[in-house]
Amino acid sequence: MLHTAVQVAQEATEHAESISPIAMGLLAFGGLVAALVVTYAFRNVSNRHH
Questions:
Q1: How is 1-50 classified by DSSP, letter by letter?
Q2: Is the dihedral of CA 33, 37, 38, 40 positive or negative?
């Protein structure tokens, strides 16, 4: 059972290398910047309701 799971995981990693590491880094950086923008947009919401 464990051998089958390891074999499936190895096959999945062989096919997952279609995106370059630089592109993956840029996508991750873009996601973090988007989260920062959303967080920054709501920075003063609690002070408006008091």
A1: -HHHHHHHHHHHHHHGGGS-HHHHHHHHHHHHHHHHHHHHHTTTHHHHT-
A2: positive
Total residues belonging to the chain: 50
Q: What tens digit of pLDDT does each residue of 7-46 get?
A: 877 777 665 568 888 999 999 999 999 999 999 998 888 7
Q: Please state, in angstroms and rounded to a whole number, the distance separating the CA atoms of residues 17 and 29.
A: 19
pTM reported for the whole predicted model: 0.56
d(C-alpha 36, C-alpha 38), whole Å: 5
